[in-house]
Give the backbone structure.
Amino acid sequence: MLLHRQTLQHRATPEKPDAVYARKLQELIGGQYGEITVAMQYSFQAWNAHIPGKYKDLLFSTAAEEFGHVEMLATMVAQLLEKAPQGITEEAVQDDPTVAAVVGGTDVQEAIAAGAGARPTDSNGNPWQAGYVTASGNLLADFTANVNAEMQGRIQVARLYHMTDDAGVRELLAFLLARDTHHQNQWLAAARELQASGAEELPVPSNFPQSKEHQEYSYQAINFSDGEHMADGPWASGPAPDGIGEFTYIPTPPESARGRADAASHPARCRFYGTTDVPNVVEKTAGAVQDRLHRE
Amino acid sequence: MLLHRQTLQHRATPEKPDAVYARKLQELIGGQYGEITVAMQYSFQAWNAHIPGKYKDLLFSTAAEEFGHVEMLATMVAQLLEKAPQGITEEAVQDDPTVAAVVGGTDVQEAIAAGAGARPTDSNGNPWQAGYVTASGNLLADFTANVNAEMQGRIQVARLYHMTDDAGVRELLAFLLARDTHHQNQWLAAARELQASGAEELPVPSNFPQSKEHQEYSYQAINFSDGEHMADGPWASGPAPDGIGEFTYIPTPPESARGRADAASHPARCRFYGTTDVPNVVEKTAGAVQDRLHRE
Amino acid sequence: MLLHRQTLQHRATPEKPDAVYARKLQELIGGQYGEITVAMQYSFQAWNAHIPGKYKDLLFSTAAEEFGHVEMLATMVAQLLEKAPQGITEEAVQDDPTVAAVVGGTDVQEAIAAGAGARPTDSNGNPWQAGYVTASGNLLADFTANVNAEMQGRIQVARLYHMTDDAGVRELLAFLLARDTHHQNQWLAAARELQASGAEELPVPSNFPQSKEHQEYSYQAINFSDGEHMADGPWASGPAPDGIGEFTYIPTPPESARGRADAASHPARCRFYGTTDVPNVVEKTAGAVQDRLHRE
Amino acid sequence: MLLHRQTLQHRATPEKPDAVYARKLQELIGGQYGEITVAMQYSFQAWNAHIPGKYKDLLFSTAAEEFGHVEMLATMVAQLLEKAPQGITEEAVQDDPTVAAVVGGTDVQEAIAAGAGARPTDSNGNPWQAGYVTASGNLLADFTANVNAEMQGRIQVARLYHMTDDAGVRELLAFLLARDTHHQNQWLAAARELQASGAEELPVPSNFPQSKEHQEYSYQAINFSDGEHMADGPWASGPAPDGIGEFTYIPTPPESARGRADAASHPARCRFYGTTDVPNVVEKTAGAVQDRLHRE
Amino acid sequence: MLLHRQTLQHRATPEKPDAVYARKLQELIGGQYGEITVAMQYSFQAWNAHIPGKYKDLLFSTAAEEFGHVEMLATMVAQLLEKAPQGITEEAVQDDPTVAAVVGGTDVQEAIAAGAGARPTDSNGNPWQAGYVTASGNLLADFTANVNAEMQGRIQVARLYHMTDDAGVRELLAFLLARDTHHQNQWLAAARELQASGAEELPVPSNFPQSKEHQEYSYQAINFSDGEHMADGPWASGPAPDGIGEFTYIPTPPESARGRADAASHPARCRFYGTTDVPNVVEKTAGAVQDRLHRE
Amino acid sequence: MLLHRQTLQHRATPEKPDAVYARKLQELIGGQYGEITVAMQYSFQAWNAHIPGKYKDLLFSTAAEEFGHVEMLATMVAQLLEKAPQGITEEAVQDDPTVAAVVGGTDVQEAIAAGAGARPTDSNGNPWQAGYVTASGNLLADFTANVNAEMQGRIQVARLYHMTDDAGVRELLAFLLARDTHHQNQWLAAARELQASGAEELPVPSNFPQSKEHQEYSYQAINFSDGEHMADGPWASGPAPDGIGEFTYIPTPPESARGRADAASHPARCRFYGTTDVPNVVEKTAGAVQDRLHRE
């Protein structure tokens, strides 16, 4: 159950309106790594977690916090748009080049569709979509997804920090940066504990028996490019991070005789009307025979 | 530049057709964590990498390999569909319940649109889309994204392994599992080296000065739920993984007076026709005045 | 700010697993009119509301409740999937036709991607996307959007009620039906009060002066079909619901000489390489002249 | 059957080109509430209507009119783009700030992909998509969806009216505003008649017996926020608009013991490789036993 | 302007309901090459055509016909669903395997969202989207797009013809096949006339001067694969279809020294926080200098 | 299998940065007819081709080349962004109108998400999606799709050529134009050979017996518009391009009595809660009877 409290987690008030920047902030609301993504991702991870206790509690708590981050950003956007120009005439632009920048750089749907308000979209106007969400039920994989999300998110906030000099906006971003720092550390700590406790190990999923995979290929650094430096890294020799295998370097992909991409496939039905090597006779005889055999 | 070689990286031939399983394999081709995603993700990371040498070479190499994985899977799907039934009559189902399963469980577009072939879609028929791709230019964040992608991918292959008993399909999956094992290890090794060399550290991006973030919140485990066990993990006390901060636990979000979600915003333009606390007089007088002031 | 409470709003436990039905329930989670839609819609309406007080409070409250509905449904789906079959062999189907139904009718991504869990998608596997959300800043329009959402939602729950005889599932649906009843009534009551108080009236937006619209067309029921019964309804004669106009019926669209769809447009730039009535001479002379005139 | 007539419903000629405004007009063509949406929505409602006569005729007629509105807008956009600048050089911008505005604010695909023409997209360039369409077969719900669509549409036209001072554009918008006025009234009149005739009543769907819903919750205004004013509206006390229930106000969500979000789920298959409370032993023993029991 | 006529272009009545087939028919309504696509494509081509007369008239006429095809198919789907089963119990499946097939193979949203009606989606439930539409303003390119659309469409209808033995459905498909035959021929005829009249020639766009392209590469069949048979076709030697060039065959891509994918880029701003070869010192000194130089 | 070579196919270096143009170039990377589309389309056509030899080899080769084109464009974009301004202050715009143009016209996600890098999106920021791909298994249809793709692609490159005067960018575009010229010719040559060899003929699919279609409609140019010039083209009289039929012109669609769009459908289940002509009695009696009859 979610409950709403009307106080914001942090102050979210700009010094002055800036409709161009309002568009950019949309990335943190409805972008691939915006706050809606993490709020939804942690929620679905919590609902899909099969193990009660601290991990599930952590997921629920962080999910709720992230919904509150959406709220602060949406509140900020509404204020950045308070004096957003609605239209533009040629004269106005001639007088004041700033207006030209504003006209070109705003999210016009924030005006036309939302009436000077935030929208669940990214900085290019793409609607948020659930294809961004990861929730596999495997906590080590999912916590790694979360570390990534918090890293990408903190990078984007840091970039946006330098795209404004509004002290009020920076005040909020400085708070979000701090929380991203915490959440990066949090998911790393959780991932490490999962491994330390043996609940999940590398390679993920650790419960799948490696004996069933083709282990001769499990630690081969095969070079599919002609770049000369691939052999120079710790992924090409030495022990693998999973503590099990030892990396070897294969400079070019071996010529295998195990299969060819250019082999012909033989669709049983002539009635798919694909181009095959059967002569192009209407309702191909061979096909008709096959059809009969397959009782279609 | 990409060059094509007609040999497959590994054998990709099923024992017998299975149109229901062909649909499931689509997840590995065009799903969120399918081979198209990693091929495109590593490609864009390589093109966006600002630093020449081993990391860029590694990205190009792995990207090329993943395109070859798409090829093996597409080849497999085409063969699984070779005898796909095209239609269904009531009698056929009455005779043979297997037919019913097949009819219900196939990807009908593999028949109608591709003529018994693979498609760049996932197992629910959603077209692959580039919103799955991550390439930020920050290599530690992106390698973490890659570790996640390889973990999620290996989990999905492992699940699919148990959804068939076709030895030919399992042969290919066993190979893909091995390569996922390698790539999980590879990106982990690369991420560790980046940190060891000081090229990038935690929290990401390490080059943004932490003095600019609100550091009092940077290591606070604030509980936004009423779950009782959140304090029990290593994210609530002790040193943070970044080696900088020390976690503290805050059992409930502090009541802050710093901002309220229910405050009124004041759009300068009455002509957005939103509902405001100005009386609803046509072309609201107050608004008209504001408009004049803003010379619109 | 959003806070999470670990108790569910209502019991969400099925009598027994049913993976086919789990797919159907996804519609209520991530469909066009699922609970994610209304939770996000009411949230953005609250953040975009420019008027403090009861309407904003109502929006925040209802938004929070709807997030809790997502939670109950996701919890239900996880349990419906607890014994979901993972794969299928031909023998199993021959033995038991139920298996065939299950195989065909499940959401395979609930297994492959979520490991037997709920996903933020609809019953056809389409990811939820923010194009479903409406938040214009005009409360009468938005409350009407909400009435519609609650009507569509209640219809879908009612349909799903008859697609199962699991008493546990029906228990939850009976609760959701009741809440949809309340919310339908709630938004209707709010919309009526807005109008009664004069804050917003018909036609929406009431603050746009009707004198600026072509009022001769404002109450004309023009028939663009050859259906004979369009004149029979209260939209073709009598007073209009806005209390302002009087409907008249126009049996066929008048032949207007005011514009033609087949007129030629004259792109100034030959360099768009469209097909025009200028002769097809390379870098068309006329075009080059135009270009010079336009100083490009 | 649809027939095309080459006269436009209304004049659609701008005074002069304006590529920036052409982008904005796209919202009315391919936006969430643009003319394509209503044309398609009314068409599918007509095809899904199970009852012949005036409602079906009305839907067909209005659908056809809306396709004609797309045509007028597309014709207008083509003319607004007639002299669209194709490229931009630094010098041109230095000379004339207007050019800067134009460059920044145009839809570049109108030039690159359409060669100075309209596109089936919105003002942010998102392709129109059928997720915007509502057609449930329940006419009271669908007519309410239509009232909402006409309200949102009229708001957007009114906003766009003030974003230009081109008399030709405003001439067309004044016509569209009038038709939106009519259609708002039309769907309201139709919705009222449906209710007056008893064909459908509140709560929708009225044919589902309320005795099957948990009626104790059907008229409860439960406050999930700490906003103080939710009790002040007509949704918190007094008779509900459906004429059946009486609202009561519940200031905080009751603590229910009926279910918990943090309960463990128990996936029967260890082979989903999720993290569970079974010890992480390869091919978990308990799981293997379960598998055997379920004969997978 | 579009006008609706209530007679269908052709009979659209099945012999008996078939909810599984109803799902498949959705491909012809809302698929990539369904009737909505061609109706919208021809409409936008007409609106973007800069040349009045027969081509524009042809586009308008065919667009209108295709909308009528959507109507016949939607009418057909509604009837195929008339007796669609709503739910399913285990007993029912045990009794009747047909039910299993039906349950698995239907589009569940046709039931849940549309109440037994057609939807603007494809056979996998993906909403139709305008990314399918092509309208460039260049008529030779667009007519070629149309030939392709009619070919793909006719293939799909032909495939669907063999997926049913319902005489009523086949009656409609036989009509659609005939119209696809006509439209294939029609667009081919139009494309040929465009070329014969010199309005547009090969290569498209013919008005772009070939002297500006690197003509040494304009007729080279370069082999980027190791397939041995690429040299065997008429694209590798002899005159090119445009009547201008002569094909030559290049067996492997030349090693060019003109550029390298692994070169380093040098983002001027350290504040993008990407990984560069500048040492990872907080707010990198070099970067700060650059920033000053660029007056940011 | 795909192998990567670090040399580019052609030089891809601009004279100077231009962030506005970088956005436009995205159309050639991730647009509907960008290089990702053709690379993926030719790949899937190769994998779905059922006939070994020259056609399959040609598809693999061209697919590989197109991936290399993505690489050149992505490399170009990264360099165009090297000095991209990150933020903007009011003063900067007042000083320099060029900055205003840049701010408005850039793809802000290239900065925020990619850190000054290319993205798999189009020039309006829409993520690339696989709905653009065509691969039917019928080679004549697919080669026609390819001719269209190369025509649309060459038009877009030609338009973009005139949107810059950067000699480095034009150098690359001049190369791409040449390759598009070749590929247009290549697919035309391949399509002609398919027909000449009898492997596939018109109308596609030629293997479907025309006797099964309603041949009386197969060559009728029926006018669904009131445009007067439709009869003037070679599609209205004379022999059809397939060499089989003879066109006839039908000036208006015949009034057919074969079906009506306004007929009532009769959903068997009252429990879909649609509006029907059965009186609105709770759990409609007639419906209940029907339900019993259908043993649901």
